[in-house]
Amino acid sequence: MPKNNSIKKVLVIGSGPIVIGQAAEFDYAGTQACRSLKEEGIEVVLVNSNPATIMTDKQIADKVYIEPLTTEVLKKIIKKEEPDSILPTLGGQAALNLAMELDESGFLVENRVRMIGTSSQTIKKAEDRLAFKETMEKIGEPCAASEVCTTLQGCFDFAEKNGYPVVIRPAYTLGGSGGGIAHDAQQLHDIASNGLRLSRVGQVLVERYIGGWKEIEYEVIRDSYGNCITVCNMENIDPVGVHTGDSIVVAPSQTLGDKEYQMLRTSALNIIQELDIHGGCNVQYALNPNSFEYCVIEVNPRVSRSSALASKATGYPIAKVAAKIALGYALDEIKNAVTGKTYASFEPALDYVVVKIPKWPFDKFITAKRTLTTQMKATGEVMSICQNFEGALMKAIRSLEQNIYSLDYGKYHELTDEELKEHLYRIDDRRLFCIAEAIRRGYTLEEIHAINKIDLWFLDKIANLVKMEQRLKTEPMSVELMKEAKRMEFPDKAIAEFTHQSEAEVKAYRYRNDIVAAFKMVDTCAAEFESETPYYYSCFGNENEVEVGEKMRKKVLVLGSGPIRIGQGIEFDYCSVHSVWAFADCGYETIIVNNNPETVSTDFDIADKLYFEPLTPEDVENIVRLEHPDGAVVQFGGQTAIKLTQAIMKMGVPIYGTQAEDVDAAEDRELFDEILEKCKIPRPAGTTVFTTEEALKAANHLGYPVLIRPSYVLGGQGMQIAVNDGDIVEFMNIINQTVQEHPILIDKYLMGKEVEVDGVCDGKDVLIPGIMEHIERAGIHSGDSISIYPAQHLSDAVIDKIEDYTAKLAKGLHVKGLLNIQFIVYQEEVYVIEVNPRSSRTVPYISKVTGIPIVDIASKCIVGKTIRELGYEPGLQKKADYIAIKQPVFSFEKLRGAETSLGPEMKSTGEVLGIAKTFEEALYKSFIGAGINLPRTKKMICTVNDADKDELVPIAARFQKLGYTIYATRSTADKLIENGIPAIKIKKISAGSPNALDLILAGEVDLVIDTPTQGRDKSRDGFLIRRNAIETGCTCLTSLDTAAALVTSLENANMETLSVIDIAEI
Amino acid sequence: MKAFLILADGTVYEGESIGSTREVISEIVFNTSMTGYLEILTDPSYCGQSVVMTYPLIGNYGVCYEDMEDPESYVDGYIVREISNSPSNFRSEDKLEKFLVDHDIAGIQGIDTRALTKRLRNYGTMNGMITTNENFVLEEVLPKIKAYKVTDAVKRVSCKEKTVLPGDGMKVALMDFGAKKNIAKSLNERGCEVTIYPAYTSAEEIIASNPDGIMLSNGPGDPKDCGPIIEELKKLYATNIPIFAICLGHQLMALANGADTRKMKWGHRGANHPVKDLTTGRVYMSSQNHGYVVADKTVPEDVAEISFINANDASTEGLHYLGKNIFTVQFHPEACPGPQDTAFLFDKFIDMMEVNKDAEE
Predict the structure, then answer these.
(1) Which residue among A490, A515, A540 closes a domain?
(2) Which positions of chain A have pLDDT values less than 70?
(3) Domain closes at, from B150, B166, B200
(4) What is the pLDDT of residue A175?
(5) Which of B:265-304 have CB within 8 Å of A?
(6) Which residue of chain B has the CA closest to A542?
(7) What is the distance between the alpha carbons of residues A624 and B80, in angstroms, rounded to a whole number?
């Protein structure tokens, strides 16, 4: 059946800001789908509040709205653009929920917009717990004994009847928000009441606990004619009980026989058929490890994290095919883009093993609970491909960039037997290493299996790795041993450590004996058909099949940014992809290396060649030895790529763009000071130290408060403001828990206005698209600050200085390409706090709001073009007609126990943009986009530190004027009352009820302003208040600047008059 | 112990011996299924062949003897990337290597099976030798390898005596050319009384037993080697008895009706082959194992029309005989291993038998 020609203009909804549970995978899916639609001549209208995405580029869609994802905004866009169709299944749960609301309200029908792809009835059947259960019962597909409850009592009744433990899953939430396993009535009370509140429809599913069963997923695709296939199945190494997003996953399944494999496959097809899905769908199963008994856990009637993984694991582009299906094509009419010869109506055959390991943010949130449950905690993931499981696991471990190169790492050998045992019972992000240590200590695999229920097959593979460690440590090196170690993907670095040699010696031995990596193709068909898609992975002991033909063009190696983590998110993928496109534009052959399955950069049709590999020197060298690129670009792949600079130079590959020594000069305190001196640019006084003694001396010399941080880190990791000697001692201890190769920086802390610029330098001229100003004062990480473009509160003199300093620094550091500078403006003086001669988090944002494609310009400058040649006038560009405000978005509610107060260390996971003609409207949009939709109850709690009390007064007065009832802790209340603002005094938590916690838990307040005392807040009260506020869905602000911005936004709130802006016209 | 795979084109792969250490010359074919290795090893259609598994980890879930598609294995050799030493599955009774030893299958592991598969794809199916003799002389073994041909395969794999699976539904005569167990089981599960006949049973004997339908099974080798069977099928065709045929049975029925078969370059062996039902337009995933195919445009138009094609290469996957209660398919609706999407064809066959029976009564 050909495409449906009545579809001409389609609205695609994105997934909004990156939060835990909804990450870059939807940018990948959305981008692929938009390109697939445009290929068919469809006009694409895109809406997504997240400016860091590739899908919000004007090259990807025809009309681009970076607007808050709310039904009101969508209605406005639909009224304005009049699309004939809406495609809601590509933007994750967020998009699906919005489309459902529009449909249920009758708006879509009224405006003659049809939902294409999967229908709203189908979505309802799959998403509504009760409807889903009924559907499954109808076709005889088993679900775990369960009941949909809308009241706490209902939950208790179920547990009484079926016994504890029970699992609680709220309806319509993403990443399992608010879910959990309750072992007793108290836990059930806590989890279920939270879940009921978080669910959009006030429903939770309470079900029989099937923990310990195998968790298996099937990715299924169906067209509107009933043809359906499974793209692949995946087995979670962690049994049911750990969210699949937090599980280590292998594809295809390893421990299922054909009988089980086909049983579940047939079930998945029956389900997708009954639900009448048109597009992609994910079905999750629990499979009893001791029988054929299984139950359906859930169905996602849309593309998902798992479908992104399945696409990358097989080469089958699920989102692309789903988009074509939505247009009416049948599966056998859609070409398999990988082989170019076969069609989308087939099931990929893998001839390799794929392993995914999540990336968790526990290095950022040291107080957060690391236990993995049904609430997802990971921010991102890595994937690896190898011919054997051991190798795939080893490659994935080093792809996580934790400086871990084998299972024998860290202090696990120091644990007592008791501690180790305790550790084994606690399933958290460190379980692989604990299992390995347990094996080393002589635990049998059966004993370990009895504790964690991980299948013996996987435990045996871990044991193989431990055995190899032992062999390397004890046996003399031989060619056979080396071959075997490399077959299992032990990196040279680990072999060197185990064999007490240098890495260079190991490498030399390998090369002497011709033990080198070979590359294989991912072709969807296990070599059955000839394929041309250049998607490769490495392995040892095999024939290389990558053909490196005669070089016709210059070849550039672009290094990607690895897994999404706090501080290094999707924006670096945006930069990598755009630089690939720019190089291709300049006639280069492009090669990209990356290991993140969620991203656009790892789509096989972005670069000329894709190597899905860990980003370590050894892995990159394997590629370099084969490809001999003319140069490598590191400035777009975040810290991941920058870290590889030295290694790549040693391989004899020139770095395109800013040179390594200049990157170093920006990081190295002394070299940088020299440059500043030469350029006559001031910076806050500071020094470098190694020991706590030195730190104390330096801090006292500079005078408190001081900023203390390790060098060469991203996202301000480990950065703190110290106000006294005690803080210094504490922070130094924390920093020195990991070995520091570089000195620690101590700077005088100036509490001024923070300003940020991104610039491009062609070696001579500098282009500055705009100046961004942060709402929060210095001291809060730039990634966590609300950022305004163009800057609103700078004098012309200051602006001139910023332009001048930027140009001087770009030249002083010999920048070729991008640079990002952060300044502090303090009493009309401009101080430099940090220069990064590379792409930054704000690059996509500033590119979109100014319409200046700075990655493209930077890439072209790198290959020798000048800014003028590219048609731009150097210097600070004219301000845009719009105000664009970037608002950070956090995922605190997902991370139990994480400290939520903002400081110099970045904590946000994503961002949204508010763009409008006026500052107030832009600000309002940015808050709405970030999900801060106030007021609700018009009651708030204020509890601020002494230093902030004066400043709170006018802000509180404004809230009061808006109708807010203010509760405040004793001294804060006194201050407000003193100033004529009515405030209700509440007790400290320790002083008994009624206190702040009671109000929060009762859901009475919608806002908490809590500024912690300087330095690390040690007050238990503050922490409890903030955590409970976050966990009950109450907005909690920890900076008065943010609070002032919020009240400004509320004073100007008017949804009726809200404008929507197509940024493709900027 | 070292083992070698020597291909007819002179390529030599070195690996490690698994299973039997006997020397074996056979046809080398590859299968892309990711699960179902035991079913493949016991599929009689592989008689005279060595199977390369493209999925690199084989034997992960061990051996469950219940899953065998025949009590014997007729596979000569088995070529894998890595065989599992520690299988894990609740039904696993043995390691796969033990099975290879017990059934005297010469195996080799540690081979770059992807490179081998690409070679077989590019050059077409080739003969090869698996040996543990390190001192082989290539010039001496190559002529022997090249000369090898699968012969008398059907005779070797077919049952020697007829057996009956009781049932109170339709009476089906199953011609065993090397039938996979699940064909009989699929019919039996649907209530049929299945009588399994040796391949060379005369048409007269079958007809005399007065079956409600005849099932022609899969089987090994070149269909054109089965001249005498084809002659019997002509007689069965002439009756009014409903016939359903799978794989070799499908090819033989086509040959009996004037069509031709040809050897494919590398065949279809795997669990992901898309077949399109030309009547409904629906595409199904199917399990396949064949190196020969009914040649395009050789089916006389007045005898049969093509009912299924392969969605990848458009080769013939099924025939519907005009004016007859006969339909045949190239693929394996009985699955085992592979997708169960086309199991409805057994229901179709039963319906056909019932309608026919009602009409006759």
Answers:
(1) A515
(2) 1-2, 172-177, 712-718, 738-740, 1014-1019
(3) B150
(4) 53
(5) 266, 270-274, 276, 281-285
(6) B112
(7) 31
Q: Has residue A885 been placed in a domain?
A: no
Burial code of A607-643, b = ≥16 C-beta within 10 A, e = fewer? bbbbbbbbbbbbbbbbbbebbebbbbbbbbbbbbbbb
Q: Is the peptide bond before A705 cis (omega within 30 degrees of 0)?
A: yes
Over pLDDT 90: what percentage of chain B?
98
**The domain that contains B25 carries what CATH number?**
3.50.30.20
Are the beta carbons of B13 and B107 closer than 8 angstroms?
A: no
Q: Catalytic annotation on B140?
A: no
CATH number at residue A192: 3.30.1490.20
Is the complex ipTM higher than 0.90? yes
Q: Is A452 helix (H, G, I), strand (E, B) or coil?
A: helix
Whether A748 has a binding-site annotation, put simply, is yes
**Residues 253-292 in A contacting B (C-alpha not used; CB under 8 Å):** 253-259, 261-262, 265-266, 269, 289-291
The verdict on B173 and B95 lying in the same domain is no
Cα angle at A324 between A322 and A325, to 5 degrees? 65
Q: What is the pLDDT of residue A356?
A: 98
Q: Report pLDDT for A995.
A: 86
In this structure, the answer to whether residues B298 and B356 fall within a common structural domain is: yes
Among candidate residues A1057, A1044, A1000, the one with its CA nearest the CA of residue A1026: A1000
Task: Quote the CA–CA distance of A322 and A941 in Å, as a whole number.
Answer: 47
- The pLDDT mean for chain B works out to 96
Which residue among A599, A621, A646 closes a domain?
Answer: A646
Who has greater pLDDT, B220 or A687? B220
Given a contact cutoff of 8 angstroms between Cβ atoms, the answer to whether A1023 and A1052 are in contact is no
**What CA–CA distance (Å, rounded) separates A680 from A829?**
13
Measuring CA to CA, which residue among B321, B171, B178, B348 is closest to residue B256?
A: B321
Active site residue B334: yes
For every residue of A968-999, DSSP letters joined together read EEHHHHHHHHHTT---EEEB-GGG-SSBHHHH
Give Cβ neighbours of residue A443 (< 8 Å, ≥ 6 apart).
none
Catalytic residue status for B247: yes
Q: Domain with A999 in it: what CATH number?
A: 3.40.50.1380
Contact list, B114 vs chain A (CB under 8 Å)? 351, 520, 526-527, 542-543, 545
A711 φ/ψ angles, rounded to the nearest 5 degrees? -90, 170
Same domain, A526 and A490: no
Three-state DSSP at A432 gives helix
Interface test with B, best of A214, A219, A223, A259 (most B CBs within 10 A): A259
Element (H, E) at A835: strand A829-836
| Residue in B30, B91, B282 closest to A227 by CB | B282
Instruction: Record the pTM.
Output: 0.94
Give the number of domains in chain B.
2
For chain B, say whether A541 makes contact (Cβ under 8 Å).
Answer: yes
- Considering the domain architecture, whether residues B241 and B286 belong to the same structural domain is answered as yes
Domain enclosing residue B85, as ranges: 2-150
Is residue A269 included in any domain, yes or no? Answer: no
The pLDDT value recorded for residue A739 is 64
Is A782 a known ligand-binding residue? yes
What pLDDT is stored for residue B356 in this prediction? 95
B167 touching A, CB under 8 A?
no
Contact yes or no for A457 and B273 at CB 8 A: no
Catalytic residue among B247, B250, B268, B273: B247
Å between B283 CA and nearest CA of chain A: 6
Q: Where are the alpha helices (DSSP H) in chain B?
A: 37-41, 96-102, 113-123, 138-147, 153-157, 181-189, 203-208, 227-238, 248-256, 344-360
pLDDT on residue A1043: 96
- Kindly state whether residues B143 and B161 are assigned to the same domain: no
| Residue-range definition of the domain harbouring residue A17 | 9-116
Do B212 and B340 lie in one domain? The reply is yes
Distance CA A1013, CA A1011 (A): 7
